[in-house]
Specification:
Order of helices and strands: HEHEEHHHE
CATH topology: Diaminopimelate Epimerase, Chain A, domain 1
Number of strands: 4
Distance between the termini: 18 Å
Number of domains: 1
Radius of gyration: 15 Å
Number of helices: 5
Helix content: 40-55%
Strand content: 5-15%
């Protein structure tokens, strides 16, 4: 038996609203963009490969400063990946920062706190984006939608 019903989303409406609100708060202080993509299954052995595909599909490489971040999750397969575009990946501190962000997310997932994991991970990513890509009125605001994308 699957942990999630095929027709039921893994996050309640209230939990989705909390995650979206965290994204919106994080993006207030930066030119960076954060997206969340959730689907039941990952068709790849490595979730990072699927995250790269989703990143491209969502047009996340098209941000003005190349500083978008994707939190990808295949909930039924218990896999996730956090992918930052070229500039934010390098400026946030390379692999160590991304391992830390993943650890923050994973600790909540292990406790069954998916929404809280997303919120805390978004906060970590938002802090890094604000530090390395602070708000700039000359950059188009909110280049990408904030809502969670649910794949099939």
């Amino acid at each position: 038996m699957s942990l999630f019903d095929k027709n039921k989303l893994p996050l309640s409406k209230e939990e989705q609203e909390r995650v979206v609100a965290a994204i919106q708060r994080a993006e207030q202080n930066t030119t960076g963009e954060i997206r969340v993509y959730v689907e039941p299954h990952c068709g790849y052995v490595d979730a990072m490969d699927r995250a790269k595909e989703v990143f491209e599909e969502l047009g996340m490489t098209q941000t003005e400063r190349r500083n978008a971040v994707l939190i990808y999750m295949a909930h039924a397969d218990h896999q996730f990946a956090i992918l930052g575009d070229k500039e934010i990946y390098e400026q946030a501190g390379g692999a160590e920062f991304w391992k830390h962000a993943a650890h923050v997310f994973r600790k909540h997932l292990r406790k069954g706190e998916m929404a809280e994991g997303f919120v805390e991970c978004v906060n970590e990513l938002g802090n890094a984006l604000a530090k390395h890509f602070p708000y700039d009125p000359a950059v188009h605001r909110n280049e990408l939608p904030d809502e969670i994308i649910f794949g099939k």
